[in-house]
Write a structure and sequence with these properties.
Oligomer: homodimer
Distance between the termini of chain A: 12 Å
Helix content of chain A: 25-40%
Order of helices and strands of chain A: HHHEEHEHEEEHEEEHEHHH
Radius of gyration of chain A: 20 Å
CATH topology of the largest domain in chain A: Ribosomal Protein S8, Chain: A, domain 1
């Protein structure tokens, strides 16, 4: 069991060792470990050694010159200079927020980045400013569009954070696939089958084998199959890809760079690195924020009290499970799986740090 | 078989008869019949008599004073004065577009409206301006969130239209449920069962009976059940509801007003009418539009040429099926189901018009 502070401090030390400036190392560590706090363990310290390997492969620039290439009162195009998405993300979301202060809303499309951790973390930055926060990113191609055998899209998550008054904020944060890759990894470790509708094999046939991705299979868009609306999940994944990577000039679709350093970079990339898209909308750019908060509280209370199918299973508000885990883990600590702990110990040894 | 012009002219005459000004009647007719052109028959002239009944019930103001209540450089809050959504929609989308011309993007939340036809029509308005268009609306509560027995949300569609160069634009337009209500109506007419994952019965149990909604059942969020990601469809429907109706001050969640005039208005409504949300983003607020179009063309070509599961079933680009139907129907006309034709004949008789 580790405290949040232990994991955050350790991650920061690792980022300093690969050459990040102090401020960036701290920002990257906070972004990364927010995933462990919120229970999205696949995106937290479990990925720390992956970022280090990308740096070793020369694919991450630890001290990037992140800059605005073009802007209008409510928009910016940002080039991340191949830096850590964990740093480019918060900085770009900060640009969206400061645009929104003046223009009502702010929208930032980012190219030349890397994985930015969990989408929800960035969207939630807007909450303290009484803004709605939006964040999305494209990702390595693992997903087959409806009727495709080929992997063309990433799990391309969308997050939206909406402030409330007395109630806790609504935070939606989800992959645009039936199930995120992290869910498959859990089944792999438990040696269990996956529900049909999550994956297809390399011929495009429905499969329940969680190892199928290693054999050329693919994740399926939200909906699973055409009859259950997979074309809608494919639409969502496409929108995220285009807002994040075509609008910014990053590697889109099957040309999105892989997270794992052992896979080669795609050939003939039409743009630079991975892409993200961030938005911030000031509540009072639409109506008085007090009035909005009263209504959001009423919305949340009404949904929380909806008649349930099973009396032991209350209707949840988006973000409830993650917030509950965050509260628990802040108090009781974060337990790591043995392979993740070994991975961190390996990094400690490599860089002369103590975990 | 009717031509587009016949249906558009007839609809315009009906809107004039209920008291719409000339310009509004024409705008409403164009918006309405765009649904018949694009093959979303449930939202076209099939609904004309429904709008008339809402007017008869005093729920539609045919000559509204649509006004901006509050604005910033990139946002506006619009009150539709209980007018036709078919008119409030295009006018509000026009405000979003003119905001985007100056501020880079424009975002409009609308209250006190009624059903606005198909979401895609409004989003597509942005294409001619080299902008990305976004449109969404809340709707009468027919959908049960994950683990809820109660209907709390509408089918809450989202549309996103993205310009391309030589290729046709990408137009995603989809309900945030597994299947839209129109799909159920088709099965009802054909006396066929629905696939599991579309609906639940009044106890919240999975059902394949397309008449279940009339017995207190509900449509299911995209994903269908928890294991297949229904909580993600619930997130999407919630975001649409909040952007459209909480942000604007309309009737949200279970308080969204019904489309059918025989159902009473909800009690204790927290806001006015139905809500919509529109967005327009200038491509060149991010990067030169020529460069974007080259990349969108490459995106579209690459996805269109993805290896298929079945060689007779090519991978489609969002909007392909609707565009194909639009081309066909512009040329060969629009055939109406007998009950829809009878409905229009009834309106012709009522208002002394010829169909």
């Amino acid at each position: 069991m580790y405290t949040y502070d232990q994991l955050e401090t350790f991650s920061k030390q690792v980022f300093l060792k690969i050459g990040c400036p102090e401020e960036d190392a701290e920002m990257a560590a906070k972004t990364l470990v927010s995933a462990d706090l919120r229970g999205i363990d696949s995106h937290g310290v479990a990925r720390l050694s992956g970022y280090v390997r990308l740096w070793e492969a020369g694919r991450i620039n630890p001290d990037p010159n992140i800059k605005i290439i073009h802007e209008t009162p409510s928009t910016a195009l940002v080039d991340g200079d191949a830096g850590l998405g964990l740093v480019i993300g918060p900085k770009s979301m900060g640009i969206a927020i400061s645009k929104a202060k003046k223009a009502g809303t702010g929208w930032v499309s980012v190219r030349n980045s890397n994985h930015f951790g969990i989408a929800g973390y960035h969207a939630m930055k807007a909450l303290a400013e009484d803004m709605i926060g939006i964040s999305m990113t494209n990702a390595s191609p693992l997903v087959a569009p409806t009727w495709s055998k080929e992997r063309m899209l990433g799990t391309n998550p969308i997050a939206v954070a909406i402030p409330a008054g007395e109630e806790t904020p609504l935070v939606a944060d989800f992959a645009t696939t039936t199930a995120a890759n992290g869910k498959l990894e859990i089944l792999q470790r438990q040696n269990k089958k996956a529900p049909y509708g999550w994956i297809q094999d390399k011929e495009g046939k429905p499969s329940d084998d969680p190892f199928e991705l290693k054999n050329g299979g693919a994740l399926l868009p939200l909906g699973g199959d055409r009859e259950h609306g997979s074309h809608k999940g494919y639409c969502l994944g496409s929108i995220v890809d285009i807002f994040s990577a075509v609008l910014s000039g990053a590697g889109y679709g099957p040309w999105a760079p892989p997270f794992v350093s052992f896979l080669p970079m795609p050939e003939d990339m039409p743009g630079k690195g991975l892409g993200h898209f961030f938005g911030a909308m000031r509540i009072d750019a639409f109506q008085p924020k007090e009035q909005f908060k009263v209504n959001m509280d009423r919305w949340i209370k009404r949904f929380r009290n909806a008649t349930t199918v099973n009396e032991n299973q209350p209707v949840l508000i988006p973000g409830d499970p993650e917030r509950t885990l965050e509260e628990e883990r802040k108090k009781s600590g974060i337990s790591l799986l043995k392979p993740v702990e070994d991975d961190l110990k390996g990094l400690a040894l490599k860089f002369g740090l103590s975990l």
